């Protein structure tokens, strides 16, 4: 049996990664979406085990210590990480696994899974990115400013990735993402 493929999707907060991923998974339910663990509080409508595994900081530290995370990073004051066992099991079964993770985690994946396809989603402009973050209505002014500062740093790292896709039109971007995910390399 052929091993599966690991696909990493990253980009700045507010760029539309989650929307693109949900649409891609609707089109292709055969893709395995790896649910991340996080120490942040759930947002409205988020469900444990479907959107994230919500954990305490202490539980998260234990996962790191025990080698249970494939990658992890701290972002905007919260920790995020990918549980290792489920990803490795799916890849061993020939399944394509997709991760939606932050830049630091994506950099770790480059070390732990060099063959992973790493895709960076870019905003059409900084102004549009700010509009998207503000339209969420979930962050304080301080958090928005922090996300925008971080976004500039992340965008500067886009060339580290195999593929860069600008999210300027949802359907066209989804088509480009789909083509990248199912390319043979």
UniProtKB/TrEMBL annotation:
Guanylate kinase-like domain mapped to chain residues: 4-182
Localisation: Cytoplasm
Binding site for ATP: 11-18
Keywords: ATP-binding, Cytoplasm, Kinase, Nucleotide-binding, Transferase
Enzyme class: transferase
Known EC number: 2.7.4.8
Stored SUPFAM superfamilies: P-loop containing nucleoside triphosphate hydrolases
Record carries keyword Kinase: yes
Enzymatic reactions: GMP + ATP = GDP + ADP
Major location category of this protein: cytoplasm
GO cellular component: cytosol
InterPro entries documented for this protein: GK/Ca_channel_bsu (IPR008145), Guanylate_kin-like_dom (IPR008144), Guanylate_kinase (IPR017665), Guanylate_kinase_CS (IPR020590), P-loop_NTPase (IPR027417)
MF-aspect GO terms: ATP binding; GMP kinase activity
Similarity comment: family membership: Belongs to the guanylate kinase family.
Function of the protein: Essential for recycling GMP and indirectly, cGMP.
Protein's name according to its UniProt entry: Guanylate kinase
Lineage: Bacteria, Bacillati, Cyanobacteriota, Cyanophyceae, Oscillatoriophycideae
Gene name, Swiss-Prot/TrEMBL: gmk
């Amino acid at each position: 049996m052929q091993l599966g493929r690991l696909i990493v999707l990253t980009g700045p907060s507010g760029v539309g990664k989650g929307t693109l991923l949900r649409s891609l998974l609707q089109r292709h339910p055969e893709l395995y979406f790896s649910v991340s663990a996080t120490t942040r509080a759930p947002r409205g409508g988020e469900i444990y085990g479907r959107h994230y595994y919500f954990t305490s900081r202490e539980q998260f530290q234990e996962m790191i210590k025990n080698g249970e995370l494939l990658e992890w990073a701290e972002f905007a004051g919260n920790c995020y990480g990918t549980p290792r066992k489920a990803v490795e099991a799916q890849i061993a079964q020939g399944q394509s696994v997709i991760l939606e993770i932050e830049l630091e985690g994506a950099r770790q994946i480059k070390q732990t899974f060099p063959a992973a396809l790493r895709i960076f989603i870019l905003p059409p402009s900084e102004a549009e990115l700010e509009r998207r973050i503000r339209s969420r209505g979930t962050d304080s002014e301080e958090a928005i400013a922090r996300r925008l500062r971080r976004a500039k740093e992340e965008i500067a790292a886009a060339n580290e990735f195999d593929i860069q896709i600008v999210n300027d039109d949802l359907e066209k971007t989804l088509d480009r993402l789909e083509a990248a995910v199912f390319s043979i390399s």
